[in-house]
Amino acid sequence: MSESVFVSVPSVKGKITFKKKKDAVYVLFEYERVYNAEKKYNVPKRVVIGKLNDENDRSLMIPNENYHEYFHSEISNNDIVENKRSNVLSIGTYLVINSLLKSSAIQIKMDEIFQEPSDLLIDLAAYSLVYKNCNNLFYNDYINSHPLFTNHMEVFSNSKISNIIENISFRQFSNFIKALNENSDKDQIINITYGKISGVDNIFCFEAWDNKGVLVNYDIVPDDNVSSTNIISFVLKLKKLGYKYFSLTLDFANLSKDIIDLSKFNDITIFVNNLNNDERNKIIASVVGTFENDKDAYNVSNRIYFKESKINSDYFGSDYYAYITFDKDKAKKDQIYYENRIHRIKNYLEALIGLHYIPREEVTNYFSLYYDEKGKLVKFEEKNTLNDDLKYSGYNVYLSSKKFDIDGVIKYSKLNDVILIKDVFASLSSVKNQGNAFDTLCFINFIVTNIKKIIEEKCAGESINAVINELEKIKVINDGKSYLLCNSITKYQSKILQLFNLSNSDIENFALYLSQLIGENDDLSRKIG
Q1: Distances (CA, A) of 435 to 29, 166, 267, 423
Q2: Least confident of 104-118, 153-167, 297-311, 389-403
Q3: DSSP string, 125-142
Q4: Distance between CA atoms of residues 65 and 260, nearest Å
Q5: What is the pLDDT of residue 21?
Q6: What is the pLDDT of residues 180-217, one digit of tens each?
Q7: Concatenated DSSP letters for 428-481?
């Protein structure tokens, strides 16, 4: 079975069936029906003619020798086969990414270091950006409905993509990151954060951000907790890039004496999120009632009250700054939520009087339950625990070894404890080197993160998801002769495009370019590499 050639699944009504075996879905062709006199019905005779390229797409398959025998087709690697590219292509996101790549160092460095695979990596990044939160849309869905960065918009087979992945080295990723950091400000403070990669066990991803929020480097750590060893390893990588000053944002649960000592020895600022309840409540109790209605303590841009305090702890070994914020709106929403929740639980318990009932922990937190000798619920009483729970609602506490203003606190408090990486290769069963594939996924996430940052900077105040969704609505349709805009460009779309130096005429010119590139009368067929 040649995995470098795809053909359409034959359209023979009632003759094609599918059978899944292990990780593959095979295509069967019914070539004959033989009457069984004993059983008195026709018995179908079937043969496997290939397997699906993607088990979620039953239109494209990889043929075998039986396919050639029954359908009299001779297919070579250079044959033109149907690409199944849609007649309608979303072009807005492509044009924006193309524009920002030309105006940044990303495209040039990619071409220098990765050479031929460079365009494919950019396509995979564009796919990940567009379908970031769509688990059921694979790369094939993207290439069917979007222009591509590959040469002449060539579509690669799954086996070729897998081969490219397996031949990209980790050194190339490192060289690209080094090249991208050549002209950056080495005197700025680089903030180190970390997170668990969603869906992957026992792996942390460290990320390093510059003062503009650009991701400058990352490191994958095969470990089940954050340690001083893997932190210093990442710091050394950043020092090799020329950076000198660092801060570390981490959860209180991962803070250890070793990390504190490490930060002092290397002059690394520590910023602590997510304190445990005891530590948090103790700090809040020391300042509660002193700033929540003080106009001078109110930060308009973040709509919170803000207080700085100093704490001394044997654990930290020195004074630490405590930053306490209070959000009145959140406190009010929390109160309404819990009051409604308790009211619903109360109604629920009333309906259970006289029945056997084993309560959840949440119920016993707020109610005392009484049973008769047969174990049936006879009555319940509300505890006075709600006021205790709501006493510190709306408050947040952060710790730091360095003095910050409110904007600095808000900036460093936005730690993502889970890192989502789009599995670009979910449908590529032919990837043999899973380690290489995972490295490539992480690198693509690095590219996507920086592309998103550029878009966010250009579209200040706009949600990145809203911008991408709007760009995806800019579509062209092939009328059999050429590509034409499906709809007029809206004012909002035009505003976004202008931020990337794109005009309505650029859209029209690109549609003309597509018509010439893909061909006016070739039915959108392309060579499969």
Answers
A1: 37, 9, 35, 13
A2: 153-167
A3: HHHHHHTTT-TT--HHHH
A4: 65
A5: 83
A6: 999 999 999 999 999 888 777 788 899 999 988 899 99
A7: -TT---HHHHHHHHHHHHHHHHHHHHHHHHHTTTS-HHHHHHHHHT-EEEE-SS
User: Which CA distances in Å does 272 have to 98, 113, 182, 313, 407?
Assistant: 39, 38, 30, 14, 16
pLDDT digits (tens, 9 = 90+) for 408-433: 888 888 766 667 777 777 656 556 66
404, β-bridge pairs? none
Q: In 265-359, which ranges are E strands?
A: 268-273, 298-299, 304-313, 318-326
pLDDT at 4 over 50: no
Q: 202 Cβ partners below 8 Å, 6+ apart? A: 222, 223, 224
Q: How many CB atoms are closer than 10 A to CB 169?
A: 11
Mean pLDDT of the region 449-462: 89
H/E stretch holding 197 = strand 189-197
Amino acid code (one letter) for 93? T
d(CA 177, CA 220): 14
Q: pLDDT averaged over the chain?
A: 84
Q: Name the burial class of residue 328, with classes exposed (0-12), middle (13-18) and buried (19+) by CB atoms within 10 angstroms of its CB.
A: middle
CA pair distance 11, 61, nearest whole angstrom: 12
Q: Which residue has the tokens 């998103």?
A: 452
Q: Which bin fits 342, alpha (ψ -120 to 50), beta or left (φ > 0)?
A: alpha
Q: Rounded to two decimals, what is the model's pTM?
A: 0.72
Closest C-alpha to 427, from 51, 133, 16: 51
Closest CA to 394 of 322, 308, 336: 336
Both tokens of residue 113? 């270091």
Query: How far apart (Å, rounded) are the C-alpha atoms in residues 224 and 201?
Result: 8
Q: Are strands 268-273 and 483-485 parallel, antiparallel or unpaired?
A: unpaired
Query: What single-letter amino acid sits at 235?
Result: V
Task: Give buried/exposed letters for 437-446 (b at 16+ CB in 10 A, else e).
Answer: bbbbbbbbbb
Contact criterion met (CB below 8 Å) for 291 and 307? yes
Residues 275 and 254: their CA atoms lie apart, in Å, by: 10
Identify the bridge partners of residue 485 per DSSP, sorted by sequence position.
476
pLDDT in tens, 274-330: 888 888 999 999 999 999 999 999 999 889 999 999 887 666 667 889 999 999 999
CB atoms within 10 A of CB 145: 17
Give the pair of three-digit tokens for residue 20: 């899944």
The neighbouring-strand residues paired with 21 are 24
Cβ–Cβ < 8 Å for 428, 161: yes
